[in-house]
Amino acid sequence: MFRIAVMVSGGGTNLQAIIDAISSGKITDTEIGVVISNNADAYALTRAKNAGIPAVCVSRKEIPDRAAYNQMLIKAVDDANVDLVVLAGFLVVIPEEMIRKYRNRIINIHPSLIPSFCGTGYYGLKVHEGALARGVKVSGATVHFVDEGTDTGPIILQKAVEVKDDDTPEVLQRRIMEEAEWVLLPQAIDLIAHQKVEVVDGKVKRI
Ligand code: GRF
After folding, report:
1. H-type helices in 94-178, by residue range?
2. Are the C-beta atoms of residues 154 and 203 closer than 8 Å to each other?
3. Is the bond preceding 115 in cis, omega lying within 30 degrees of 0?
């Protein structure tokens, strides 16, 4: 069985999409070993509990020392003994030590077509505010491997989503989740679980 850890901070709709894709057979031969949250109040933890998945909270608030926090985060991932770490709306910067240790074994979902509207400062609704301010006609979502930069790692999958004239950031956010994120993240996990992708010269190739 391919084992994944899912790291979350908030509502956990992407976590739910993964849980549902495993139940429905869109993702096969894969189990969620643990859900890790930095936020004790994250609804994602309730989703994990409802699905009978072990969940742990490594609270940033309770451990103000960043180095100590990083070690606890890495230990939580190590203890889960997983093949892949999935960042599904995880708002804490991943320690470089963990990125090195899990090279090409951490993926992230970002709600735009990278390299647009990504990098430092582009998270949550700010991504969609940026897209609407620029007047783009398509946005979308990207699943990528995590490297030392912010949203700079090798791109695994992207899906475009139409931007409509009267969109608000909230409306666009929801459409991108429904049409792109909840589809792409399970697809990427299934591809990786079945060794269908590899990273060559910093780019993802389908095998
Ligand atoms: C999603 O928009 C994801 O792309 C971004 O954070 C959000 C998480 O939403 N990285 P949810 O917690 O999965 O509902």
Report:
1. 96-101, 125-134, 169-176
2. yes
3. yes
**What is the three-class DSSP state of 157?**
strand
pLDDT at residue 38 tops 90: yes
Helices (H), ranges, 135-179: 169-176
Residue 136 three-state SS: coil
Atom of ligand 1 nearest to the CA of 13: 14
d(CA 207, CA 178): 28
- Provide the β-strand partners of residue 43: none
- pTM of structure: 0.97
190 lines ligand 1 (CB under 6 A): no
Characterize 167-205 residue by residue with b for buried, 16 or more Cβ atoms within 10 angstroms of its Cβ, and e for exposed.
Answer: bebeebbebbbebbbbbbbbbbbbbbbeeebeeeeeebe
Q: Which residues contact 23 (CB under 8 A, 6 or more apart)?
A: none
Summarize pLDDT for 156-165 with one digit per residue, the tens.
Answer: 999 999 999 9
Nearest residue (by CA) to ligand 1, atom 7, is: 89
| Mean pLDDT value across residues 177-200 | 98
CA 171/CA 164 separation, integer angstroms: 9
Mean pLDDT score of the chain, rounded to an integer? Answer: 97
